[in-house]
């Protein structure tokens, strides 16, 4: 890399060398373990965030109460530096995994919340009226009509949250967290740029694969009768 | 509070650095996104290509992009240029869509009228299409500026991160005050820049404030 005066080809060769070294594929610092750690943080935080955000977003979207709060939270998050939040949690609590995971959950809630809320709000009021007209209860209207119709935007929110989580879990390596961010930060501290780059490639690949997988899920679960309003949910492919 | 007073020089320097690192990419990104967004409205396959690659770029986590750019650019890994280029790329990715959507939304009757009045394509673009697109572009700029301000702090992990460097100071000295100063400062900066852009957008579109018009 630049600092070592090597050209792009040398770096590429070093990168290939790093990936073909069997030492990097086994043990607690091996790629499989680090990858699983990263998936664990991302998946766990996403699951917890969805458990909180989807019911809450559906409720706010259905009743229209608290809408300002939801939109405000989503906007404020964009300005909130995730690294600062993670470090603050560690300084305040002194213990690792639980609180940092909680911080990840908190950062993942707003996108899912905003997507769910926007999705429910965007359902055609005529459709909702019709559902009530055929005698559905409020609960049924929400679960059988509004949620399925809102699915593209809900999944859009989940995709944003996932990208946010993969990114923040990388940064969390700074507070002695595992995951793929370890390679970037450990590599930087010993100036092993092949390791840094390997970490970057792995993180970027993971983000893209998860994003594609979620796009695939969206195709599978969204009813053929509704495509996202004006293709919005597919917009970030 | 005393910490802030004793270190006001440091904090001011970091704030200035932060503003540069976040806003130069916004300006560069806008300059690049305008012609690209315009081209996207003319050539359908280019629109598809641009928006797909923008989406792909957006999935790359910021720290990964920061440390990968030296390979592509030949810069030093600790160079601020990596951050400026990375944030410019994110900004372009975000704004190309805004610009293309905004240009698409111009009422065809207005464009036809402009042509009938003798506007040539370039002048029509500058004098008619672009001003009409301002509100949507400004909305995109606000999102880009605010997320850039937040993303700059990630750069502190590679040594250049504006107010984000205070997070590292706080962590290393196990001291909450610098961290809080960094957090509050970053949020306040985002708030101020957002308000400035909102205001700028209003000033640039005086016709939007005159109500429904005659």
What does the secondary structure layout of this molecule look like, with pairings?
The complex is a heterodimer of chains A (237) and B (214).
Chain A: H1 8-20, H2 31-63, H3 67-79, H4 82-93, H5 97-121, H6 125-133, H7 138-171, H8 181-189, H9 193-221
Chain B: H1 2-6, H2 8-42, H3 44-59, H4 62-73, H5 80-104, H6 108-116, H7 121-152, H8 165-172, H9 176-204
Outline of the structure:
With 237 residues, chain A is an all-alpha fold.
Structure in words:
The complex is a heterodimer of chains A (237) and B (214). Chain A has nine helices and no strands. Chain A is mainly alpha-helical. Chain A has a single domain, classed as MetI-like fold (Orthogonal Bundle), CATH 1.10.3720. The two termini of chain A are 31 Å apart. The model of chain A is unreliable at 1-5 and 230-237 (pLDDT under 50). Chain B has 214 residues and is mainly α. Chain B has a single domain (2-204), classed as MetI-like fold, CATH 1.10.3720.10. At the A-B interface, helix 1, helix 3, helix 4, helix 7 and helix 8 of A face helix 3, helix 4, helix 7, helix 8 and helix 9 of B.
List keywords for this structure.
heterodimer; A: 237 residues; mainly alpha; 75% helix; 0% strand; elongated; disordered N terminus; disordered C terminus; B: 214 residues; MetI-like fold; 9 helices
